Structures are given as structure tokens and as C-alpha cells.
Amino acid sequence: MNKLNTYFFTALFAALTINQPLMADGFPKTEPGDTRKVRSSSSPDWLQAVARSVMHITDTKQEQCSWSLIVDKPHKDGLIVVGAAHCINHMGLGGGKFDVDPNKNSLTWTSQSGKNIERSITKIYTAELNPADYAIAKLDRPISRHDIRPLIVAPYEYSDMLDTELFYSNGEPFAPFGTMAGYSGDDGLGQKGKVLTYDVCRRVNSGPSGMKKAYCWSYPGASGGAFVVTLYLKGDSECDGGGICYIQGDFPNIEPGTHSFWSGSIVGGRGGDGFDKTLFTNFVHYASKLDPILAEH
Question: Considering only CA atoms, which of 83, 69, 86, 44 is closest in space to residue 153?
């Protein structure tokens, strides 16, 4: 499926309780036991690739979501973003067409040095709500990688990269792990969506086609934010001949060491699971659409 249609107006939203775009008139309270952190100067560098978006639905109505700036290989500037389809339902015209007004949407990134960079969406390539929930879009102009370093799309599916038998052994710095990041609009830790918060997932489960579940905290406003897998890639000199050794050649143009790969986008919670269990769309579900778009840019 490569178009938005009546999914936006069907019983999908009765069946799913997702992290809806944050409405300016309602902010959920931060729940007890929330394990998120607020981004700071000591936080992981990759968080700079997650943007806060504001969509002007009408003159008096706004919605907030999150988007990730991504590339298919290192050393490229960022132009393509991925978010959640339910954040752009107001743009859907049916038949795969979208009414995109760059003057009515804005995305803001904050660099590691604290510099704010603003862009707008000018094109929606494709979007889907069911069985996955994602949107692929183009910015009005590129963002230099020297200002905001885009996230690199994962070379493998998240479940493979989280396999400790493949990517972890004694003597390595850490086992691979997943993290979620977005502009959650809770009235407390998330400061009504004004700050970027992130949470290391306690575990990541399989799930229905397209959508998967991670045990991470998020609230409305985080939709479209990043699900990232961080792991350590061994180099030639670190291979001892035992077990499976992933060397530089398995990841073209990527040096050995610690890396965080973009593996999908936040959708929200299902049913009564609460804010500590968050669905995300596995990018593998739509890689055949995403790959040529990234290659072109």
C-alpha cells in the first residue's frame, strides 16, 4: 500500500489507542515510574536527528509530532524525513495525493551546540496507516550534516541487530540495545513537548505485521520519533576467529566502533498497555519504498 485513503476515517482509531498528535489544549500527566531522560549535552549525539514538528491544521488548531532525519549512507546531508502517518491525516486527499502547504508546517532540530534549524515539508512521498503507520517526506531544502548529522538507516532488521549472539561477546563494551526518542507532550518530564526525551527499552517484542512493541515510555507528541539500535561493530583486529565476527566489510563505508542505527518510527501504545509500552513501525516493512527515495537524494 502506498497511499492514504479512508483509513483516516475508519474504525482504525477505535481499535488502536496511539500516541495521537499532541493537541495544544491537552497535556497528559507524567506517570509514576517513567524512566525517560531529557536530552542534555551529555546525551547521545544521534538525538540531534529527531525534530519537533508543528502542523497548523486551522488558524486556531495546531498539532505536534516528531520526525527523524535519515540517510542511507554516511557523509550525506539530510533531506528525507520519516514520521507517523496519523500525524499528517489532515493532508490526505485520497488516491495517494496530499495537500502539503509548507507555510503550515515546521520542523525544528537542535544541534549538539544548541543551534536551532528549521525546515518545512514540501512533499509526501508515501504514507500508510494499516498495517503499519509511517510517512516518508521531503524537506524544502537540505540540512548540512555538519549542522545536524542524520541517522543512518539500519543495514539489518532490528531483531537481528539486537541478537547478542551475533553482536556481543565477552570483551566488547556493551550488549546492543534499543532506544526511543521523541517530543512527548506530557505535563512534567516532557515539558508539554518542549524538550526531547528518550528512553532505553527494557525489551523489544515481535508484533503484528508492520508494527512492533518496545517497552519504552512515550506520550502524545512522540509519534514519528526514532527507534534506534545501538551496537558495537568489531574491526578486523578484534576478530579472534571464534563465533561470528562482523567486520567493516559487512557495513560498507562505516568504520568499526559504536554506532546507532535508525530502525523505525514511533507509533504509540495499543489498547490499555499504557505509556511504557510503545509501538513502532519496523522500517523493513516499507524498505522497498524508502530505499530508492534515499538513493536518489
Answer: 69
